[in-house]
């Protein structure tokens, strides 16, 4: 018999994170496009990010038929948070906004699944691509990053908003993420974590 889950944060009721999820306002609109394979992921940080931001939306799928309408929201300048040859550093894009808020499109999935989202939704390729600043390190201590600067979705959103809305900070979004990691370390046992995950 499966454990009862919270309908909001999708965590088991005895590990519900809702009390830690803030409700933060931002000028930037965040649109997270989540590959269906991520929905049942133990972390699902995209869901936590969408719940913690008033001006955010999480859409799940591979093909988004209404993407033209989602991107055509008046008063925003859209950009795609994804690396590539044509990608520009986010601070550079922020300087070009001329007072307009950004519409930040964030694909959520493994690198392979995120690339599939771009392939299945060619309209995304028409957007200016942006990347986070160099030198960022993930707080997700349970998994080795596949490449330098690789962050979880919620960390990427927090970092991006910190640039787009400086000097405002959005670190409060990370509280449920950090509680989730602590819970996983506790479940595996601190000794097991130290042996297998801590950097020597």
Automatic annotation (TrEMBL):
Keyword tRNA processing: yes
Database matches in InterPro entries: DTW, DTWD2/TAPT
EC number(s) stated in the UniProt entry for this protein: 2.5.1.25
Main EC class the enzyme belongs to: transferase
Entry superkingdom: Bacteria
Keywords for the protein's UniProt record, in alphabetical order: S-adenosyl-L-methionine, Transferase, tRNA processing
Residues annotated as domain DTW: 2-189
Family classification: Belongs to the TDD superfamily. DTWD2 family.
PANTHER family linked: TRNA-URIDINE AMINOCARBOXYPROPYLTRANSFERASE 2 (PTHR21392:SF0)
Protein name, UniProt field: tRNA-uridine aminocarboxypropyltransferase
Organism, scientific name: Pseudomonas aestuarii
């Amino acid at each position: 018999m499966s454990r009862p889950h919270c309908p909001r944060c999708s965590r088991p009721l005895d590990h519900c994170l809702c009390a830690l999820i803030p409700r933060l306002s931002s000028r930037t609109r965040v649109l997270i496009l989540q590959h269906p394979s991520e929905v049942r992921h133990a972390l699902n940080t995209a869901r936590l990010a969408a719940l913690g931001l008033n001006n955010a939306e999480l859409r799940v799928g591979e093909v988004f038929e209404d993407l033209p309408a989602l991107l055509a929201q008046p008063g925003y300048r859209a950009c795609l948070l994804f690396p590539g040859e044509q990608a520009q550093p986010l601070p550079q894009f922020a300087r070009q906004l001329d007072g307009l808020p950004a519409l930040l499109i964030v694909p959520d999935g493994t690198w392979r699944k995120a690339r599939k989202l771009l392939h299945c939704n060619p309209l995304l390729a028409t957007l200016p691509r942006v990347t986070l600043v160099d030198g960022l390190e993930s707080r997700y201590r349970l998994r080795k990053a596949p490449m330098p600067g690789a962050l979880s979705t919620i960390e990427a959103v927090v970092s991006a908003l910190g640039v787009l809305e400086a000097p405002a900070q959005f670190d409060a979004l990370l509280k449920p993420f950090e509680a989730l990691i602590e819970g996983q370390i506790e479940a595996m046992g601190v000794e097991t974590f130290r042996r297998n995950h801590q950097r020597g």
